[in-house]
Specification:
The protein folds into 2 domains: 85 residues, Leucine Dehydrogenase, chain A, domain 1 (Rossmann fold, 3-Layer(aba) Sandwich), CATH 3.40.50; 125 residues, NAD(P)-binding Rossmann-like Domain (Rossmann fold, 3-Layer(aba) Sandwich), CATH 3.40.50. Helix content is 44%, strand content 15%. The chain is built from 11 helices and 10 strands. By secondary structure, the chain is α/β, with parallel strands linked by helices. 45% of the residues are buried. The structure holds guanine. Guanine binds next to strand 3 and helix 7. The site of guanine has 9 residues, from strand 3 and helix 7.
Amino acid sequence: MDTTASKRIDGKGTAVAVRADVAVRVERLVAQGVTPGLAVVLVGEDPASQVYVRNKDRAATGAGIAVQTRKLSAETTQAELLAVVEELNADNSVHGILVQLPLPKGLDEGEVVRRIDPAKDVDGLHPLNVAALVMGDEGLVPCTPAGCIELCDRYGVDLTGKHAVVVGRSMLVGKPIAQLLLGRNATVTVAHSRTTDLAGLCRTADVVVAAVGVLGLVKGDWIKPGAVVLDVGINRGEDGKLYGDVDFPGAEANASLITPVPGGVGPMTIAMLLDNTVTAAARITGLEA
Ligand code: GUN
């Protein structure tokens, strides 16, 4: 029996299953007269962002969501971008708004995020959604952390009482995943670039979430036998291939479950974006989905 293969979390296949569930919820809304609408705003020509946005557009369309992608030039001013956000806030056919990050230099991301209607903030980055997550209220949860938890759920990982070490403290991943893990009764440690003895800390973890954007930072011998490893990193190696923040072959030898890169957490991010869009559409319209 090939036991190594069974350790790998199939994010691609799980994302297909989530998207199928989303498509059913979309149909339910369409039957009640509402097609969920998603607006994706891309400013500038960053190649990676262009790929992400194209994939989001394709996946949403495939799930029956009405997508509009707004491509704005890299010279767009803050005022012009805010005007687009306001227009989408006021558009009743749009239930989800995503402004692809990072924005070109000179644009104020924080102000843009704060201007998005929190009910349409499918990235879960508006301060009111951040507060809702911390307080355990109903809100919209950032897609990548939501995808990590969905993977744990679908693979039967019980987080209660587990020690989870989150490496990274970004608003998009580290901080929200820490809150979600707390919500699942894990004991959570958030580590970052100034943490002393990161290796020793990771060795105490039942669950390691790596979200720093440093290729291969987390070594295989930092992983406790039987630990669950969620690798959120997407880094381009010198060979042109994609690698995570975790040394995969070394970590796979010790882990009970591990997400590969690519094909692990990445596909789940888009699936959860679609899920958030349908959730937002249902809440805004007051319909069941
Ligand atoms: N850039 C990289 N990941 C994300 C994400 O989840 N949302 C947005 N808006 N931009 C991103």
